[in-house]
Amino acid sequence: MRFRLRRAQDLRDAIVKGLGFQAEGLKVSGFDVRDALVGHAVAYEFDIEVGRKVLPVRLLEDVSRWDFVDLPIFRSQADADDTALAEIRRTGTGSIVEPTLPPFQLAGPMELWIQNGDDVRLALPHDVDAGTLKKVVLSDGAVVTVKGARAVSLRLPLELPLPLNRTTYKGRLSSLISIAQALRGAARSNQKPLLSLRVEGPVSLSSTPSMSPKDKLKLKRLAPGQVELSSQAGAIPAITEDEDEPHNPGLWPLLSLNGSDGSLQGFEELLASVLGKKAGEKGTFKLLKARASAQTYVKMAFTVEKKLAEGDVNWSNIPEWKTKPKRMRAHYEVLARVEEGQAIPERIAQVQPFQANEAMSESVLTGNVTRSKMEIVHPPPVYFTL
């Protein structure tokens, strides 16, 4: 369910519509945007083509921290202008800080296309003024650390080999390492970089010593807005089977990903389940889309009440002495993504905010029988009691 909303009322109406409820006789309570929780997480999107089928995969990291934040997207225009003016007076700037991806390392041979080329900062290791950059080519062995990126995505589809062979690395079998080795081998054999990524946001590229702390990157201008970065230390050796060296890189081209990390096992199992029988057959599959982006999410809780009509509930399983409710109440939680000043609901789940415990008197448990009709039970005596 995807809606683009600008007001809290729009978000409320979209949620009611998405749940399939009729507006008549429906009451939504507890829907207060001032109680909204705001958090940041990284979202992953993949489109995998197997045969003639395109299978979309969407993954979302758990939000590590939720905070109470006043959302400007739900304010009126006058309130938003007053808040923006107060923010400018307090901090000297009116810009809104957007979430960014954690710093990550990229290794060549590959090419980077910078979306915001006017705000790129190069440190090799000293700051270099390269002007407006649109394209950065990383030669084999060049490693850079990318900071401040809002998103990184695949520009051109990739054709990946099958079957999914599993390589032993640091005591763990990994099929992702085999894919990374095949990609790197294909990139080295071609004249042009096989892998092409797009980076969004004002980023900084800094040199990352791969072999020696004295290793520095050399910059070569290819054309206006295009540069090439090369390493003096040469190419990074590939991971070999059963190798356990401390300087071993991670999964090429993302050296920040450790090939022995057990958390990648879930992704490998997901990929194997998506491919199905083709995972063990010889051939190829395509990665049409791959995107990792830092997102802002909003979590809100609300209650839906609906008047019960005759026949809506089966009262046969409920004791006669219980009070029959006239309204049905359910608690929900909505998770929405904030994008371009709009809230897009992504998940609505029913929650149980409390555990309902029933307490009954002794007369109810005994069938409302008087003491005179109850059987007299004499417990065994305790001889150690004074």
Q: How do you describe this structure in short?
A:
This protein is α+β, with helices and mostly antiparallel strands. Helix content is 15%, strand content 35%. A hairpin with a 2-residue loop joins strand 13 (167-169) and strand 14 (172-174).
The helix/strand order is HEEEEHEEEEEEEEEEHEEEEHEEEH
Tally of individual domains = 2
Note the main sheet. Answer: 14 strands, mixed
Broad structural category: alpha+beta
Q: What would your notes on this structure say?
A:
This is Tunicamycin induced 1. With 386 residues, the chain is of the alpha+beta class. The chain folds into two domains: 1-96 and 295-310 and 322-386, no CATH class; 98-260, no CATH class. The protein has five helices and 21 strands. The protein has helices spanning 8-19, 77-91, 175-189, 265-275, 362-365; strands at 26-29, 37-50, 53-60, 67-68, 104-107, 110-114, 121-123, 127-128, 135-138, 143-147, 151-154, 158-162, 167-169, 172-174, 196-200, 204-207, 217-223, 226-231, 283-307, 327-339, 342-351. The strands form three sheets. Strands 1, 2, 3, 4, 6, 9, 11, 12, 15, 17, 18, 19, 20 and 21 form a 14-stranded mixed β-sheet that branches. A hairpin with a 2-residue loop joins strand 20 and strand 21. The longest helix has 15 residues, at 77-91. It is elongated and about 100 Å long. Mean pLDDT is 76; it is low at 1-6, 76-96 and 241-248.
